[in-house]
Amino acid sequence: MGVRTFFRNMFDSATRRELYEFTRGTEKFYYTSGDAEVELNDVLYEQLTISRSEIKKSSDLEKDELEITFARDSKFAQDCLRSALEENIFVKVTKYQHGNLEVLWQGRVVSVKPSGAQITLKCETDYTKLGRAGARLKFQRTCCHDLYGNGCKLNKADWGVLTTIKSVTANAIELRDLTFDDNYFRLGMLQSTFGVSVGIESSAGNVVNIIRRLDSLADQVTSDADLLTYKNAVSALDQAIATRDALDEDDPNYEQDFTDAQALVELKQEAVNVASQKVFFVTVYPGCMKSLTACHRFNNTENHLGFAYMPEDNPATTRNA
User: Which of 85, 100, 135 is a domain's end point?
Assistant: First the structure.
């Protein structure tokens, strides 16, 4: 080993590098805020522009929070913003120096906030959840499970209703072809074409009222004419595919007929592609009032974790007649 290589390796070893590990379900994401990517124990930490707030260690665990800031074009940060943290995201910040690893901080992401050219993840330590009532199961009338969560066990994809937006008036979104009882989607969610989700406060007929205004939905309105053009294009494509697939392979002209039929299919597919550019599909998901009756609507009473017949009054307290 040359002298130059020796000193370079010694300098690299002495350089402090911070490593960030994010866990979302079964997925893991590895980043470093250093000037180059880091490979450690067969794990590659991607170099990103990341900054964080000061790590504090006080007796008040609620104050031991950490803010991690990404550039706005970070795909991971954008995914966190779009998902509205439907899944828990755990964080571990590690210092790597002189060949040693030291955990500086670990916890979970509790909120995501975009600001200018940045997206900031607000995180709390693992210990704060010990002081939160929501982290422990409680005896209560309503179910304590999150809808479509691990305890609920409903598959969210099975309950989504694909539709299009007919009009937007402030928080009132008029959709198409919804044949459900009033307030079927109450406390549910509307997911836009681009994956942005917003809660639903109430619903009646084809109209859902979202809890906050989402201006981007106004750009996802589909006109009746554009929707009809798209449906006709899809129907023509299906017919062309059916005609092609119905050709008799034993026919002496099969090869030429198939070539002509395939060319027609490709032409109809292109028409669908063009028509689809003016059609914006959104998905609405029903909500749950967390009652036994609500769980019955989902045919999911076996996973209901509420106590509907709890007495309203403390039985240990004697009331005056």
Answer: 135
